[in-house]
What does this fold into?
Amino acid sequence: MSNNALIQTIDLHKTYVTETIETPALRGVDFELHEGEFTAVAGPSGSGKSTLLHLMGGLDRPTEGDILLEGTAMSSLSKDQLAKLRLTHIGFVFQAYNLIPVLTVLENTAFVLELQGVVRSERIARAKKILGELGIAEYADQFPSRISGGEQQRVAVARAVVAEPSIVLADEPTANLDTAMSLELIALMRRLNEGKGATFFFATHDSRLLDRVNRLITLVDGRITADESR
Amino acid sequence: MKAAIRHMMRNRRRTILTLLAVLIPVYFLVMMFGFVNSMMQDMFESSTRFDTGHMQIRAEETRATGSAMPLMRNTEDALAALASVDGIEWSTVRLDLPALASVGDRTRTVYVRGVVPEEIEPVSNMADRVVDGEFLTSSSRGVVVGEELAELLELQVGDEMVLLGVHPEASLGALRVPILGIFSAPEATMGRTMVLASLGTARQLARSETAATSIVIRVDGVTGPWDTTLLDRATTALRAALPLGYEVEDWLELVPFVSGYLRILTPMMLIMAIIFFALGALVVVNTLYLSVMERTREIGLIISLGASRARVMGMVLAEAGIITLAGAFYGALVGVGLVLIVEAFGGIPLWGQMADYMREVGISPVLHMSIRWTQVLLAAGAMAGVAILAAWLPAWKASKLEPVEAMRYVE
It folds into this structure.
């Protein structure tokens, strides 16, 4: 591993096994990500993008290989240790069903801080600050069902970055948004990357997003076929 | 906690169902406790005030001799021993004799109970049960009979009857006595067989000036069937103080059918409580499982964000805890409220065969209710505890969800 790699995948394999069928999703993926990168992994449906993201986020375990996050081998961690790693090092933005419906925008944003044990006054202050920075402070007291899909994704981004994780993993964040909302969300994430140095890693095939990344990894049939800087 | 409350508000129907699953068993248990308490208290009062006292000193082997109680020819030493025991509220000497009662050509087997009327009046309800005529005094030579016996012998106040004492240890004695009063016995058998007389009259019938069959005793602080500690202490002390030739029995030993009821009631109530609790717990498990299933994706998201398994379990248990505690509280509230309402209206009168049966076994045919706070807390606490234990299973299942699979879950 190079000295400043934030995350490194080592010969990553993942095979889904059912009673009769074995489906390989990843077949030996090796790459490194560095702090401050704004990287996407692209590829056709079924190429293994989401699987790669889940493994990098510690939501699933590889069949073979390992992932090092800031030097820590994820394979050596128990479920609870993985949960703690996710809580302290990783921010997530999912394609859909991103927010907890019974919590307000402010409470959703502050939720990760609450899990981390941050005192109430501080987590409210930090959540309000990030909502303000992302231009959605006015929705703080709204429940997710009362705001649009684009606004919900912005709240999800706010929640992903509020605890200042090492990396934000986003799985098809613009898939359910129209063009205007997608562009707005991409600009917002880019701003966080450039302004705060937040590291983003996307799984996407949205060309509008792919145009804005500074590194693009292409995945086909579970293997990296291209890795280009822009 | 806030999220748990909002979840409950979002699924109001299910929340209400879970609440009722806890509320109804608690309510039923409180009501059941209320009826049973009152019934047992009624049996205790009937027995101890009219018949047995809290305990009695008798001649040894009284129990073995059947219907005729052995005579104590002199009670001085027993009374002296009784005076040395602490915590005795009251005592009186009594003589029970088997006898034949004849009016014209009608004869019945009875037993004559000789009492000191002035002594029994402050603590006994015998005098209050006189429905016609008057109660005894020490100087009166007449008797008071039960309504049932009066009907069988066609007796009225002022009539006379002949009593023939037939105690195996006493000489035959015969007396012609007037009927001073007619009483309502707490149970029908007693009403058919008991003839109340002054101790002097009974002793005349036994042809002995000092004979007695029991010393009836009340113990300080014993107010109900569950006050067994004070009673046991006094019984033990009295047994130790008495000379040879006497035995001491408490009211439960003297009235075996009541102690039988008490013995049956506790396991019966326990079985009913278990059934109520099991049904309540099943509903709680079922509704919480549904809740967890419906929120599979949400729980998956929460786990993805880094919540520990313990935290996820805590979230489900918090929801279960709020509902069950609220259910237990309102169940207790409704139960206690109904107990108070029933008592405010003077109880629930029974009718028909049920009322007759209750009278027959010496229980008031009006159902009263009384409840103790410890029983309310027991019913509510036990149900809440069982429900929260039942919630453990869905909570554990939620905590074991795999985040990726949970987030893919489609309802």
Notes: Chain A has a mean pLDDT of 89. The first strand of chain A starts at residue 5 and ends at 17. The beta strands of chain A are 5-17, 22-34, 38-42, 64-69, 72-73, 90-93, 167-171, 200-203, 215-220, 223-229.
